[in-house]
Amino acid sequence: MEPATTRHLRPDEIAQIGAICDAVGNDPHRMLDILLSVQDECRWIAPDAMQLIADRTGLSRIAVEGVASFYAFLSQTPKGRVTIRLCDDIIDRFAGMPQVVAAFETALGIKVGETTPDGAISLDYTACIGMCDQAPAAMVNDVVLTKLTPDRGAEIVAALQAGQRPEDLISDHFANLTPHDRATRQVENNIRHAGAVLLGPGSDRAGLENALTMTPDQIIGQIEASGLRGCGGAGFPTGRKWRIAANAEADRRIIICNADEGEPGTFKDRVLLTERPHLLIEGMTIAARAVGAREGILYLRGEYVYLRALIEETLEDRRNRGLLGQGIQGQDGFDFDIRLQMGAGAYICGEEGALISSCEGLPGEPKTRPPFPAVQGYLGLPTVVNNVETFCNAARVLDQGAQWFFDMGTEQSHGTKLFSVSGDCLNPGIYELPYGLSVRDLLVMAGAEDAAAVAVGGASGTMIARDQFDRRFGFDDLSTGGAVVVFNGQRNILEIVEYYMSFFVHESCGYCTPCRVGNVFLQKAIGKFRQGLANPEDIDYLKDLSGTIIETSRCGLGTTSPNPILSTLENFPLVYAAMVKPSQDRIRASFDIQSAIDSARHLAKRRSTIFDEDFSK
Amino acid sequence: MTGFSFTIDGVAVTAEDGETIMEAADAAGIYIPRLCDHEGLRHQGSCRVCTVKAGGRSVSACTQPAQAGQVVENETPHITKLRRDLVEMLFHEGNHLCPICEASGNCELQAMAYRLDMTAPTKFPYLEPCRPLDASHPDIALDTNRCITCGRCIRASQEIDGKGVFGYVGRGIHRRVAVNGADLADTDAAITDFAISKDVCPVGCIIRKGIGFATPIGEREFDSGLIGHKIEEKKRD
Description:
The complex is a heterodimer of chains A (617) and B (237).
Chain A lengths: L10 H13 L7 H12 L4 H11 L3 H8 L13 E6 L2 H5 L2 H12 L12 E6 L11 E3 L2 E3 L4 H12 L17 H8 L4 E3 L12 H6 L4 H11 L11 H10 L6 E6 L8 H8 L1 H15 L3 E6 L7 H13 L16 E6 L9 H8 L23 E5 H13 L1 H5 L9 E8 L5 E6 L4 H8 L4 E6 L5 E4 L17 E6 L4 H15 L5 H18 L6 H16 L3 H5 L2 H9 L1 H5 L15 H12 L13
Parallel strand pairs in A: 1-2, 5-11, 6-7, 6-9, 7-8, 10-14
Antiparallel strand pairs in A: 1-3, 3-4, 10-11, 12-13, 12-14
Chain B lengths: L2 E6 L2 E6 L4 H7 L23 E4 L2 E4 L10 E3 L3 H17 L14 H8 L24 E3 L9 H9 L5 E4 L6 E4 L26 E3 L20 H8 L1
Parallel strand pairs in B: 1-5
Antiparallel strand pairs in B: 1-2, 3-4, 3-5, 6-9, 7-8
EC number (chain A): 1.12.1.2
Keywords (chain A): 4Fe-4S, Homeobox, Iron, Iron-sulfur, Metal-binding, Oxidoreductase
InterPro entries (chain A): NADH-UbQ_OxRdtase_51kDa_CS (IPR001949), Nuo51_FMN-bd (IPR011538), Nuo51_FMN-bd_sf (IPR037225), NuoE_dom (IPR042128), NuoE_N (IPR041921), Nuop51_4Fe4S-bd (IPR019575), Nuop51_4Fe4S-bd_sf (IPR037207), Thioredoxin-like_sf (IPR036249)
């Protein structure tokens, strides 16, 4: 039999792939949609499939391969009809994922990374899927399963092997459920505190109605006056971004919603997408009105594919109600529509340039700046990229007024913030609270009084210790995209740091040298600390290498990836000091002479006269 | 076009609107080290060896537009150290065994190491890749273990040859240059391509068969001077 990787396409597969390309007009900018569909239908992206897609879209095969090999959810080897993706986040590990993994491996008779011999089921790890408040979690094709146990793992395998479909694991009458019910049966919202702006009661059309009474300039003025800043983490003033795009010379402008929430420990956008989808689309529509855009893209991370039907339903509903499409609210010339773009497993696509590349059908690589996206973004057009929470806030600002929003929060951070709290606490979930809140206040609310370390902002944020729990959330002090990951005193700080570094190694796009290579070196160095093989000078090495990566990396991934190391070196110095040993005899502890000479032993077919004491025997 | 001036390490340099810091520096005879950038090809900004401080911020000189009045730092001890770290990273990422490499003496990576004083033993671990050699093509061989993923061959083939023989595949540390087909013989690469010429690959990854060691060691490009000396000579003229 021909090996699978050189097998030629069957006629029905050729027809199928052709139809997939036709469905998007053979448009190379829709490459990610094409490849995701081919992956779904054929379970892999075969070499012949890449050639066929290249021919259809007018690209070279290597260009298609560049995209296919970039995204974690696309595979260049055949996968099973069902792919189980186990969430490999540190919170999932601490919540018992290793036992769940063992149960899956035993029940399936394969290891993670393998496919059952009958080609039915593949088992893989995947990076944080945004379910930290209900870990351990997994995706089974497009279905999400949370709070897994070893027993549940065995049940799932038995059900799948008995011919059940992934959605049958959620409900016997899944197809009859509304998209919202399907989403909430899979994933809990865990809204622990609803604030005044986003999760409390409020209209999801008043903002747009008010916006329609204003000029675009007045809308932007309102957003500027509200003090609203980007909620994804970087905090760029939203009004300024909109104004730059509005003023840029162009006859087409684009609004993109960044729903590629990938920071480990962040899941607030998931809850907004589930509970406030209309508010989000309203915010995008207001932005379109403000900057003069007719086209929008909602980029939804591949891990949230279970929300696709809900978003599509929301868009269709708004089109039917005259809130989206041609002549919105009866206003002649106000045309705006949104297409949903699915991601395919790449944290880097949360970076706005990478997200635009991905929307263009390219590998998710950040773009060279300048030009900035507000001037030249998607297909070179002025593009506003905002986070889900930012658009929702914008809609509420237009509803309740700029002053109302401005009066909440602190001097530099106005309004409320959604905090995604997970880890060692009694009440993990979403807390909407005004900026300026202290870490301690939030920990009390979440039932995390024995917290010893908190990762504020997730993997790329800051790891703080008890003596800093009086610090306050906001751009004035502890800026965050909203992740608050709690660790108690039993957790191994270096294990957490090593996980975060392995995450960045996995998620670096590889474009620039320092991020591609430097993070691998950091990960290896932390490994040495964990094994007790580090020297005192390795602490300086970590700081020095981190500095180079931060100063020379091309985008935010590389300029923040050393943060777990730098913030723990500063706030938990004893953790490192306890693991270092001065080297003896000027030989590094990490140098193992026995393994170093082993290949020489094999080549020479004898033992060492110096290093093998029993040589003479 | 309007001209303006800015400074590099205190030296006044003139630039035209839209010029990058590196383009203006080259014209003024100031060398900013670079590996992924190549005259005539689209600027990529990936190796980061051309990192400079512009107004205190780190930027890649090959992509950053020059600005009037801007204060650019180029050859400070700190920046040279950053660049040396980057060059060491590239050495450690691949297998760069200068004494047995045909490119030795013509190799920009090696020459950059000399220029940046990479003389002490390095502190990074070796990643020791083990990628198969592609010798399928009658005239060309490809040893990607020596590749520094600068992508100059990719751009040269696309932009100059109009072919697209090469491209990037993979992500992160697995990102590498690959060919548009099962192997190089399966592509339309030709020994006459600009992408294959000795100007394009800065290291010993793209090998032209049958002409190895035609120029003896001692008479090679960087035997006569440090990398960048040709640009710096312009200043003296």
